[in-house]
Amino acid sequence: MIVDRRDLLLRGGIAAAAGALISVDRATAQTHDMGAMDHGSMDHSRMDHSAKPTSPASAKPSEASRDPRFTPVRTLNGWTLPWKMINGAKEFHLVAEEIVHEFGPGSKATCWGYNGSTPGPTIEAVEGDRIRIYVTNRLKEHTSVHWHGLILPSGMDGVAGLNQPAIGPGETFVYEFTLRQHGSHMYHPHADEMTQMAFGMMGLFIIHPQRAEPVPIDRDYAFILHNWALHPGTWRPDPSIMVDFNLWTFNSKVFPAIDPIVARTGERVRIRIGNLSMWNHPIHLHGHEFVVTGSDGGRRSRAQWTSEVTEVVNVGQMRDIEFTATPGDWSFHCHMAHHTMNAMGHGVPNTNGVDQTGVEAKVKSMLPGFMAMGRNGMAEHQDHTDGGMVGPPNTMAMMVGNGQFGNIEMGGMFTIVKVRDDLARGDFRDPGWYRFPAGTVSRRVSSDPNFGAPFRRSGSKAG
Ligand SMILES: [Cu+2]
Hints:
Helices cover about 10% and strands about 30% of the residues.
């Protein structure tokens, strides 16, 4: 069943429509265990094991050797593509295919990705490596892979029609080149690009420098920013949408399904952020000043590092940020407020400040389930949806997530950096909520609105 915004308005009431509503199980918020596996919480349900690629690179992840020169990248909610050394080249095998992807609890869609996931698996290698990548196309239309930001022979650049013939359905092409740089990069199709990217086809391509970095990185996270038009009550992203998206994702997941970024106190953390969405995203970290140390242009010299608390990651760019982890639970999110919400109706009447008492009774006579909301702000949405108010099928509530002090009222591009004193090296498991030292949490001192009689400007009192 397709539910459009008009249906939403009629079925759920004006304010309810402002945040396409569906109940979210409290227990699903931040309780998933990342475990120590690189595969994290990815959904393998649609991987077609009977059709495993026959190239030598179809190895189990454990067969991929670990390089002592660098800390492997941890792809948030994702995984790293295994490889095998064949005839002097690191050999990888990507499979473009349709998948069923879960954005978060209660929201799945038929998407396109690589090797069973969106984003596809991260390709990780070292500057100077010879790389051979097979690409098998299991889609019903042609595709190609562009290695975004890589310095390579023109015939390996992956623009269908320009650099190569398109990879037809069922065909396998091979790309082979030597890595001439290091840095944070991406890959994505360059054939029916608008559609294929709107459906989730993209991945990270991380190239480590040949020599160990002067400032060692203890935890190296990476993710791609993306946006999706998954209209309420539908099961396929709409590739025709240009601005009015309703799911904003880190590695194709929305809060609360995005893995936390876990670190031990004092560790140096790098987060590599790529953007293949259709907006620029100001990414903001609480409680730390980070330094922007690199991009798809490689690692910058120290003199070029800038100290920031928010860094805009423009479309088509990557940014590497680094910081020394400080204990606590710290929000990490896009600062576009609508990008930290899940599915919303846009362009609905503004009910803020509107006394709907009389209207509510009248509408209720025609729509028994109608509930007037939004007079004093929107926060009550989460109470209603957490309380079981039903919205359109397959649609996440606008604001979700429950912390130890109450509703977090977030969604979309939001996760939590969790820094603890007692984590083992390489332990990426969710450590639960931060135990605040006694006396360090902001607390109520009065419930009297006139408390303290602070100075206020005269003449600004509303109504
Ligand atoms: Cu944003």
